[in-house]
Amino acid sequence: MVYKTENGGANWQPASRLQASTFVFDSFFVDDLFGWFLTSAELWETGDGGYSWAPKLTLDYAHHGVVRDIFFIDKDLGWLATSRGFVLKCSR
How many domains does the chain have? Predict the structure, then answer.
């Protein structure tokens, strides 16, 4: 389950459901609408505040390692840091 807050965390509402087996390593939002979350093998993207999600990128963790951190400067440009020392650029 993904939850959303609109008042700094005082209250939370369900935004969307994920598959029960989905483990989220990291998430990052650049504004109220655009954000990403990271599983062990995929980067997912939302443009509607977390109500719906779509896979953006499938990761080759056998080569790059497991992605441990994500950071975006805006909805078009970000980076992924991996356990093997790679920093991967992600853009539209």
Answer: 1
